[in-house]
Design brief:
By secondary structure, the chain is mainly β. It has one domain. Helices cover 0% and strands 51% of the residues. It has no helices and three strands. Strands 1-2-3 form a three-stranded antiparallel beta sheet, with no helix packed on it. The chain is elongated. 0% of the residues are buried.
């Protein structure tokens, strides 16, 4: 994915469940959702 100016990005980290959610909406109407886990030390 090649982010361009005008993209909307929402990135949420939940420390209680060690999860990360990222949503990206592009100007051309395309949309991406990514989900993963994080390691908290």
């Amino acid at each position: 994915m090649n982010l361009k100016r005008g993209s909307n990005v929402v990135h949420v980290q939940d420390g209680n469940t060690a999860t990360v959610d990222t949503n990206i909406a592009e100007k051309d109407g395309s949309f991406a959702h990514m989900k993963g886990t994080i390691k908290i030390q």
